[in-house]
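Supplementary Note 3. Input sequence used for the single-chain structure prediction.
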Amino acid sequence: MPKKTQNKKAAAAPAEKTTKSKSAKSATPAKNAASKAVGKSNKKATTSKASAAKGKALQATKAIRKGTAAKSTKKVRTNVHFFRPKTLHLKRNPKYPRKAVPAVNKLDQWRVIKHPLTTESAMKKIEDHNTLVFIVDLQANKNHIKDAIQKMYEIKALKVNTLIRPDGTKKAYVRLTGDYDALDVANKIGII
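The predicted structure, written as discrete structure tokens, is reproduced below.
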């Protein structure tokens, strides 16, 4: 008996399958029509995307051919010489001093002028030419001597002549301006 019930069930099962397949077939044309409509709209969307992408690609190729650098006009040079362009020159602004202690001026007025000369020829220069004669440092130049005379004796020198003597010292002839008398200054210094 159980075998017969199984057969009945087996016979019923194919009938169910056929009914399902018929209903599926009847539903497929509607689905097919809908899917075709969606497919057409998808095709339109893909074609519009493709054309946009194609347009972008064409623009990119044009840009590559053209190049990124803009065309610039060449400067007309009217001179054969080239001068380097003037750029900004900033003053030095150091973060720390390069020397711990600033250098002291070694050639001050006391070192520049060693002593006045009191020979007969020097005295004659004082009387006749309004000129004082000094022995000065070898490294001192005429400007140093002028400044030292100004600082020490508060007199203005018109002109300074120098020479190096055979004994290796430097002699300076200091001509005073018309405002000062060499005799008075010599008395003040203590030469005479």
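The chain has five helices and four strands. The CA atoms of residues 11 and 73 lie 94 Å apart.
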